[in-house]
């Protein structure tokens, strides 16, 4: 019997709960005979995949058909908008109605960690070395993606640290400003981009920092790393763990951000602005500083026909108070897991066939399809061997949504014909030299697994309120104490125990 097939492109505005309930109606009956189905490495695979969507619309079938042909698979995507991934993935995990492959990109989320530890998903460590691409996953990445020493999926392989700033170079030039290298210089750029009419239109319609409604991927986390704040937690030579909110550097970052906000140099609507809206504001010339180096291509594409004169300069080195460079690392190079629920992937033979599919996605041919699309239609390689998109609008429709689902972004490298994008690639590689790791990534804490997301919201809400002037330092300290008593202290103790155990 064949498995239930999701539609090729489920409309993203339909609630995931409804999607999953519909899937459930067929799964019980249609899965009944799946034990008898034979799987081999060269058999045609029919696979459903819940993946994150970072674009306004799902991709067309043009490139999907090529990917299916190259992997000998019939792929049925269930696209979940990135902005609502937390609630939708949490709901899916709670219901137990999942796809064959689930992209779990929030490994610190308590619901995700609990589900992984519960035995809901296959452990895959012992299988990886049987596949030519998967066996190349480093021990460091495998360790960072594991929970209690167990790997419950294939890690998304990412660069170690991709954060940094994108600034309007044409605005800097218009105002006679240099690219900032210190926090003070960066503040002055934010001021000038707000007050000094950087676009020369005679209107008071620009803001320095564009931002969005999350601390981690908005400006705050990057600014905090410049100030020397630990990446989540710090561990000293005695194995004692200290959370970032208990450091002066964290408070210094809050004060810097609060000053930006009070003076109007930070988008007043940041607390209710989604990522796509943040990008739109930058592309429309409303803001001049964007956080996240990898956003350069998307911003330039969005600006076509709107801000044709836009030039962007990427910045990865802002000296902190200690005179050194720091940048936070996103989960030690792990972007999440491609996980395989046992309720959907019912046999080892089926698991191995899906692992072969994941392995095939890392092949250069498929990597190029998911990165550039079809050569001659979406991209070309010029005489210097540089990669260039030749039809941005078509690429955005057919290709861009697949890029965030590539199992590895580090196995193959490209020379980009776009100077700004190539510079970004080089800066991201350079970031590894001064990346600040989160020591808890490979460690486990029962409190963090059970209530980590709930506890994190206490800190997030308090930080945003402080930046917006709704509470003072005393009020913030009270929230930190609440966090500690509610489980923060317990997490620190549990991480210390896990750390000491790992050192033996």
Q: What does this molecule look like?
A:
By secondary structure, this protein is α/β, with parallel strands linked by helices. Helices cover 42% and strands 13% of the residues. It has 19 helices and 16 strands. The chain has helices at 16-30, 61-71, 85-95, 110-117, 125-128, 139-144, 169-175, 183-195, 219-226, 248-262, 275-283, 296-303, 348-361, 364-371, 392-398, 400-403, 419-431, 446-467, 473-503; strands spanning 45-53, 73-81, 101-104, 154-157, 165-168, 207-209, 233-235, 241-243, 287-291, 312-315, 327-328, 334-339, 379-381, 386-389, 415-416, 435-436. Helix 11 (275-283) packs across helix 12 (296-303). The longest helix has 31 residues, at 473-503. It is globular and about 70 Å long. The model is unreliable at 1-36 (pLDDT under 50).
Structural class: alpha/beta
Strand content: 5-15%
Q: Based on Cα principal axes, name the global outline.
A: globular
Number of helices: 19
Helix content: 40-55%
Low-confidence stretches: 1-36
Biggest beta-sheet profile: 5 strands, mixed
How many extended strands? Answer: 16
Mean pLDDT equals 91
Biggest sheet strand order reads: 2-1-3-12-4
Rg calc: 23 Å
End-to-end separation in angstroms reads 50 Å
